[in-house]
Structures are given as structure tokens and as C-alpha cells.
Amino acid sequence: MNQSRWRKFRKRVVRHRMLILMALPGLAYLVINNYLPMLGVTIAFKEIDYSRKGLFNLLFGHEWIGFKNFEYLFRTDDAYTITRNTILYNGLFIVLNTVVAIAVAIVLNEIRSRFMSRLYQSLILLPYLISMVIVGYLALSMLNVENGFMNKIILPLLGIDPVSWYSEPAYWPYILTFVNLWKNVGYLCIIYLAAIVGINHEYYEAAVIDGASKWQQITRITVPLIAPTITIMMLLAVGRIFYSDFGLFYQVPLNSGALKPTTDVIDTYVYRGLMTLGDIGMSSAAGLYQSAVGFVLILLSNWLVRRRSRDQALF
Amino acid sequence: MASNKRKLWALTLSLLLIAGLLAACGGGSGSGSGNSKGSSGGGQSSGSGEKPVELIFAMPNTGTPMNDLELVQEEINKIALQKINATVKFTLIDWAAWNQQINLVLAGNEQLDLLVTSAYMNYSSMVAKNQLIPLDDLLQQYGQGIMEAMDPVFYEGTRINGKIYGVSSFRELVADYGFNARKDLLDKHQIDLSQVKSFEDLEPIFQLIKEKEPGMIPLVQRNTSNTVVNDMIASRVDNLGDGMGVLMLDDNNTTVVNLYETPQYREAVELARKWYNAGYIASDAATSQEGYVALMKAGKGFGYFSNMKPGFEAQETGLIGYEIEGVRLTPAVGGSSGPVAFMISIPSNSKHPEKAMQFMNLLYTDADIMNLLTLGIEGKHYVKTDNGQVRVPDGVESSGYVFNQWLIGNNSLTYVWEGWDPNQWENLKAFNRNAVYSPALGFLFDANKVKTEVAAVSNVISEYKAGLESGAVDPNVLPKFIEDLKKAGIDTIIAEKQRQLDEFLAANQ
């Protein structure tokens, strides 16, 4: 019995040898780049001593200190603030980015002029290609207390007193959400546009004959047909919900301490805390914590998706 | 048979691909070190038949033009090759990326033989992590020149746990603090800085400038770390490395206290707030990314607080482009970290520690090498004047090589720039010798036992410090700041620091 299964396996290996060989380089890449470094998770539980070099020492050499490297993450009231900020911001970004990106994609798809459609696509993608450091300075040119566009032009027009933007935490949830949307929507939108373009035109033709309005076409045909893409994109985003865009939360508020209640997220907290220490054990601990939570969340949401529709789940 | 051959081909091909991948990975980390053929298999002694050793020397790029570094390096190597049978390759790393990049280099196995270290750039934690090698024996063997040329404080003051891990560059180990302003504006408004005796005395001057020179910032904050408040109280505080737990020098004892709870801090913060509200300090001082040099250069600022030293005004005039006049408002004081502010160390990554020490020895004894390193190539980057000083050659608009002279080595061997006091180096030596030093001189805090607290306290400080110390935030938040510090565990850090300091003092009786 066992032997026959083994024989079967060998037969299949021989039959698909070319396919297996073709997969080898990719597998090797995956193992070398994604799996081997995973041995490094042990660093999070260790006190690193640099006089001992090499992989063997990394895995077995240094002193085990349990969860001590994790302590600083949960030590103060900040733990609540940064976790809340991280989850709320990223949750909001996932929903908002998806909704706006789909809306924009649908609108772009309706533009008949090929040239204009391409032009808008490029314009909307442009912010995605700009470095966050530059985005930070663009924001500064808007929000500068003395010479900023907002305080100098917009607010006087509306008869509102100038605002000291970089010391008022209350405005930053809106500012960060806007900047994030402005920056990332173009990229997502292109992915959804690709999905929409792939929809067979006959569906729409049939719908028009049946007298469906434009709105009905969108809600009954477009959205359901790109649902698998939406699900995958959302699932992938949920897996990274504990990671924040460091540039967005550090560069755009110009590292202003007064804004920390609404701009501090796990990544910025770790950065500020370890700047002086440079301790790789503690930074690995933060990374491990983030990916562990992301892993659980992705399993959970995948499970939820599977319950509704098996086909759309990732695994 | 044919199918067998095909199989073999496919196998070879995929193996080749994998090998290629592996090679690419390995190559990526190897090429970063700038390793050249010369560095492998170098001998330990400088016998003439041996292959010369290439030393990698990492130093921070402070933003001055260094385009001609390679030419300078070539000239230095001609001398070094002859004297110690070694060459050096300087690697510049941006100031801003320094900590991170050096961390990566030291964590990996890249060759690095000499590097600039500093208490402000993780010196003590590098030692705690065994990333640097102790220099005591090497100094005895190959660094005699250093010990002869320098006052002992330059190498004795860097000890951690009784071992020397770095040698300080020759520079001022102490500082007096004061106010510097544009001379043209001082003259225009007939302000006599010599009448100013304290920071408070500056208030009417700020007011005058505010009224008479609209659009100009009377008091420019140097940057968000060297804040207005910091510069006002720095001479009264030994911040014992990280500023979490300090010695108040006025108190004349060795009790570690929380700076942010002291009345001195509160007074300074309140004064800054008063000036901020009066419009003497820029309203975006707490977040501004622009340093004082840029603002002063652009003609937007009148003056600024700073740490000073003999010849400071000449240095600043060169940097800013307006003539600067200064007034010193505090005595010259040396904190515990004077000698460890900038050093050269040998990392444990070094493959040739002996050679590295020999080269270091040259940096403290060889005037030719030091002139090359700090001034550049004669005739190209500087020319000698009749009285033995140097100046930028005629017709050179922007030099391709400007080195931050205080950074490494023994600068007292080098020529003095025209416009400086010809006795600059002697003055500096006297300045160092005559200053008041903190009782904790040479003490370095090892934060390893309280890492968790340090990370939390760093975060609290980053929330309040820049705002409070530039006057942008009302001092009413001070109690909240102190409360948050306590919650984050600053008292644990202070207790640990006190314990280490007591041990240090007992050992150095």
C-alpha cells in the first residue's frame, strides 16, 4: 500500500519533470529570500552579542531572554494609542481607498476618448510615484504656519483665523487620510480598471437591451464581476494592517511631537524609541509582533471569505 | 538516450540558474563593502615584501563638499604606503543615515577597519554589544605617537569598564555658551554686545530688532535638537550621555536628577515661551526642518545661541557668509561626554586591527597626512600665505574639498586658516586645560539594562521636548510631561545611572 503510493508519486514526478524543473528556480528564490531569513525570528528573543559572528551563532549562540525585547511595546499608555491609531487608520485606508479607487476606475472606464482616459490615468497615478519625503514638503507648503497656502489664501478667504497645523493634533486624521488617498488611489485604481476592462461587453449589451440604467449596470454587473479582485486586494491589505506607511506618519507630520496623539503608529513609535539604542533584538520583536498579528488577521478574514464563497478565498 | 540528454540539459540549466541566484545574493552584500583585491591576504607586519593592506575607514558626511576626496585619498595613500605599508579607503556615510548604516555594517561581516564613533552615535551600546575592540594593547604597541602627542584626557576619557575603545579627535572638549549675531545689524542699530551679561539681558535687543527689522527672526533656533532652552542651560548640566538623568553642575554634587523636574529647566522654558509669544522666535521653530545656517545665510535671522570656543566667530562667519559677532554668557564647562563626542575606533569587523592602529597613529603624528585630510591638496584646495597660514587659492569659487576639521585626528598639526588667530591651536589647548569639568568626566552610561525604559522615555521626550524648548508649547504641560516620563520609567533609568556613576566614581578615586 505504502509502496504503491510511493511508486505513484515517483511516476508523477517523472511525468511532470519538466514542470518541476521549471518551478525550481522560483522555488529556490522563494526559499533563499523568504524562508531562510525566517530563521532570524529567533533574534527577537535574544540578546545579540556582536563579537560572535555567523549564522550558527545567530541561531544557537546568543543568550535567550524570552519576551523581554517585546516589553517596551506594551509598557506605557502609548501602547494603546499606537495600536488604536495603527488599526483605525489602516482600516479606514483599506475601505476608503477601495471605494474611491473603484469609483474612479468605473468613471475612467466610461471615458470614451482614449487620449483623455490615458491622460487622467497618468495624472491620477503620478502622486503614487512621488517619494513621501517630497509629499511631506508639499504638505508643508500647504500647511506652513506663516507662508502656507492654507493659512495665507484659503482660510482668509473663508474668514477663518490661521491655524497652527503642526501643533494641532485634531486636524491630522483628516490630513493624513486625504494625503494617503491622494497618493495611493491611482495605483489601486489601475488594478481595478484592468479588472473592469476584462469584463465581457456582452453583459452590458444585454443589460442595455433589458433597459438597465447606468447605475444598475454598475451595481449589478461591474461590481459583482470584479468582486474576486476586490476580495484579494482587501485580504492582502488586511494582512498588513499592523504595518503603517512610515513615510506618511513620520515625514508628512514633520516628526512634530505635538501631533503624536493622532499620528503615532507602531512603526514610528519603534523608530523613535530605538533611534538611540539601535537594538536589533527589539526592532525584530516589533516586526515579529506586527507580522504575527497580520498573520492571524489574514487567516481570520480568509476564513470569513471562505464561509461566504469558497472561490474567492485566497487559500 | 536522447531524452536522457535532454533531462541532463534541463538539470544543468536549472542548477546554473540557482547558482546564479546564489551568486547574486552573495555579491550584493560583498560589493557594498568596497572590498578590493588588495585587502585580502594582507600581512600583519609591515615588512617590505608584504602585500599592502587596504583599510576601510567609515566617516560621516557632514554635508560639506567632498567631491575631491578620492584625490586626497590618493595623496594620503602615497605617504601611508611608504610609512606603514597600508592604504586607506574612506567611506562617507550621510550623517542622517549614519546610525542605521553603521549598524548594518557592524551586524554583518563587512570589512571595516576604522570608524568615527561618538557618544551621540551609540558608542556605549556598540561597546556593550562587543562591536568595537579595546585599544589599550594596540595603543601601547603601535600607538605610542598618539600617547605622546595628546593630553591623556583625549584617550583616557573614553574608557568603558576600564578599557579604551576610542581616541578623541583634537578639538575643544569643553564649551562656553553665548549669543552670536550679524555684525552689520549690530552696528546699524548701535547694539553693544559686550554689555550683555546674561541671556535675560538680550530681551531689549530682540525687541529692538523685532521693531526695526520687520520680517527678520531676532532669535533663530539652531535646530530641533539644539533648542533655545538647551543652549541656555547646557552649561549648567552634564547630560550624562542621553539626557535621561543628568547632573546639575551648579549643585556641585554627583546626584543624578531628572532635568525636566529642575527649577533651572522650568525657568528656561518659561523664558523661551515669553520670547516665543513676543515673536522673537520663529513660530515654526518646533518643527522647522531648516537649520540656523540656512536661515542666517538667507538673511532671515539676526542671531542665535550656540556653544562656542576660541575662534568661534571666525568659523561661523565663514559658514554663514555674514560677519558674526559673539558674546559669551557662561563659563567654559566640560560635560562627561567631552572626549567621547568624536573619536576614532576600531570595530571588531576589522581584519587588520594592528594596521588600523598604525594608521590611526599617523593621524595624530603625521602633519602631512593631517594637512591633506583636513585642508586638501596644496595648490588645489589651499595655498600657504607668507605668515604660515593658509587660504583658498585665488580664483577658486567653490572648493571641491572642505573637511570638518574637528572630526578626526590631531588637528593641532595642521595649518591655520587665514583670518583665524595664528595661535588657534594653542588657544584651544589652553581653553581645554582651563575649563571646569564635570565630576563625571569620562563616565559613559550603559543603557543595556534599562533598554525597555529608554525606548519608552525616548518616545515621551520626542513628544514634548521640541515644542517646550522652542517656546511653541505652553510650560503648563510640564507637569504632564514629567508624569509621562515617570510612567515610562525615567526613575528606573536614573536609579541605574546613579548606580553606574557611583561605581565609576569609586573606581576612579
TrEMBL record, chain A:
Locations listed in the record: Cell membrane
The protein, known as: Binding-protein-dependent transport systems inner membrane component
TM helices/strands, residue ranges: 20-45, 87-108, 120-140, 181-200, 221-243, 287-305
The ABC transmembrane type-1 domain, residue ranges: 83-301
Claim: Transport is one of the keywords in the record: yes
Pfam families xrefs: BPD_transp_1 (PF00528)
CDD domains the UniProt entry points to: TM_PBP2 (cd06261)
Organism: Thermobacillus xylanilyticus
Keyword Electron transport included in the entry's annotation: no
Gene3D superfamilies membership: MetI-like
Primary location class: membrane
Family indicated by similarity: Belongs to the binding-protein-dependent transport system permease family.
Membrane topology: Multi-pass membrane protein
Automatic annotation (TrEMBL), chain B:
Any Pfam family the entry gives: SBP_bac_1
SUPFAM superfamilies per UniProt: Periplasmic binding protein-like II (SSF53850)
InterPro entries the UniProt entry points to: Bact_solute-bd_prot1 (IPR050490), DUF3502 (IPR022627), SBP (IPR006059)
Keywords: Signal
Source species, domain of life: Bacteria
Gene3D superfamilies according to UniProt: Periplasmic binding protein-like II
Residues of the DUF3502 domain: 439-506
Residues annotated as signal peptide: 1-23
Keyword Signal: yes
PANTHER family: ABC TRANSPORTER SOLUTE BINDING PROTEIN-SUGAR TRANSPORT (PTHR43649:SF17), ARABINOSE-BINDING PROTEIN-RELATED (PTHR43649)
Protein name as catalogued: Extracellular solute-binding protein family 1, ABC transporter, solute-binding protein
Species name: Thermobacillus xylanilyticus
